[in-house]
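@channel sequence for tomorrow's demo:
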Amino acid sequence: MNVTVRPLGPQDATLFTGYLSGLEFGHSPHWATCFCRYYFREGTAEEWQARSGDENRAEAESEIAAGRMKGYLAFDGDVCIGWCNANALDDLPRLRESADRHAGGKRLGCTICFVIRPDRRGQGVARALLRTAVEDFRKAGYDGMLAFPFESPDAPQRRYRGTRSMFAELGYVAVATEGPVTTMRLLFG
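structure tokens (generated this afternoon):
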């Protein structure tokens, strides 16, 4: 498999939503309606749960087309096989509390969701997405990156945030652990 990774661009709005719509989320059916908008939204859990998949899809397409929702797509040839939500930490309001505690006044990027086609998992696709995100945030002048892997041996599908090992391989260090979530930080320079 020859994986290529490229940034999500305004032209990719329907490619992105089509990719996510084509996946099966039987392990967590509510994920099928998220379209990676959860971390961009403020509000209560009840307000989030009241949103429809159509609302989230339309919002994702609009935000991608406007250049405000960023991330990376992985391909094997012309076939999309993976997605990584990678944005400025300041653009992810649901992570504001963690950002305030762990950013230390630095300008940080964040990878929060990795969605890899089931038949391509365990083949390095998420790692390729992460490497590209780190390289691009470094080139863009960020001070570093944060990640929040969720370790759950009983529920491997919960690894949608990435694994501790993939972040550690690139030099991320654990700065806090709260239950099954570890906050990991990579500082550049």
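heads up for whoever presents: The chain has one domain: 3-187.
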